Amino acid sequence: MAGLWGRRKREQEELAAQDADLARRAEQALVGADERIRTTADELVFAEAELGESLTSDLRAALSAVRTHLREAFQLHQLNHDEIPDTPEELRTRNARIVQLCDWAQDLLDEKTAVLAASVAKVRRAPEIVAQVRADAEALSARIPHTKDTIERLSARYADSAMHQITASAAEAEQLIAFATHGADVSERRRAARQNEEANLALETATEATRRASALLDAVEDFEIEALRAESTLAEIVADSRGDLIAARTAPQVPAVAQAVTALQAALSALTPSGSRSDPFAELSQLREANSALDEAIAKARHRAEHPLPSVQQVQHAIDDADRQLGVTRGLISGHRGWIGADARTRLAEAERLRGDLPSPQPEDTREEALALARRVAHLASEALQLAQRDIDSSRPQDQNWGGGGWGGGRRGGGGGDIASGILGGLVIGSILDGIFD
């Protein structure tokens, strides 16, 4: 008994220590959150002066939300220290809530001030960014003449359908460069007039304009490289296509192969003669598509030659045989419902489900699937019939002479067993006929 009381006392002391630590943490968190609100409010004032109200709206809304929720924390702290006595559970719950609210406030303000700090740093670097925009614009302007010469040279080699990607690149880049320079000037004037929000917007648009102008000029150089690569690939595919046309002569001569050969020959004939303006991208796409179509047609024709397609009559005979076996099995099981086990009924149900999924034997694409499913249905129905007969035989009394004695028989088991034997014999004959058709 003394040990039990000692353990309880230690547990109570540990819980009291934990409560004291939680209360101390709650007070420290509340003081820290209150101080954070004051410092963030000061930062917001300076940020609004530099960025304007629109860019600081998120921090302002977050600060308002924090103040609203921390009122609850201060009220809970006041309840902990009023004249009304509280239970340890009440104090523990309030202190935990205070810590939770203060932690949430700190995290929210950290997130919003971090976002705002990047904007403030950018604004403070505005003169540097403006100088960089002007330097970039000057460097891009120096590239314009070379880009125009490149476009003119490429236009003499490639067709308009290929050149439409870059024809207007130089002119568009010139417009963007002029816009970037104008935006930098506007940013400086707005900042001098203490219109920081408009100054930031103008500076951002100027920076984006230089980025887009640089991308347009780079695209012209990339186009020339990609066009040369497309011409090289096109030459390889032309050689491969001619080899495929030769190989097609030994492939099975079916309509699909003949059509693919005709399409590939037409694609080769449509290629632009040497020395003329061409579109290597479009020609490469067309020739690659025709080449792939011929490869697929030859592969399918060879597969079909190695694996002949079953005839409609053969598939239909397999379906008829499956229906016959299903009918026999269904009749036997429905006539002996109380004697049939789960295995036979499960196989019959699966066979009937597959029979409902059998596709039509007319389309060539589904004929092999229809034949395989029909044979599967017949096999499941045969298994169900054998299992059903086994269940029927095992359910009969073994000490009675069924079919003999006073019935003028002389043979034992001459009823259901003979019927099932006849049924199985018919199914075997059906399977033999199915093999003859195969």
Write a brief structural summary.
It is built from 13 helices and no strands.
Structure in words:
- With 438 residues, the chain is mostly helical.
- The chain folds into 4 domains: 116 residues, Butyryl-CoA Dehydrogenase, subunit A, domain 3, CATH 1.20.140; 104 residues, no CATH class; 63 residues; 110 residues, no CATH class.
- The C terminus is likely disordered.
Topology, please?
Elements: H1 2-51, H2 57-80, H3 88-124, H4 126-155, H5 160-163, H6 169-192, H7 196-248, H8 255-269, H9 280-306, H10 312-335, H11 342-356, H12 367-395, H13 416-437
Major sheet description: none
Tally of structural domains: 4
Number of helices: 13
The CATH architecture classification of the largest domain is Up-down Bundle
Shape: flat
Q: Characteristics of this structure?
A:
disordered C terminus, about 450 residues, mainly alpha, 4 domains, Butyryl-CoA Dehydrogenase, subunit A, domain 3
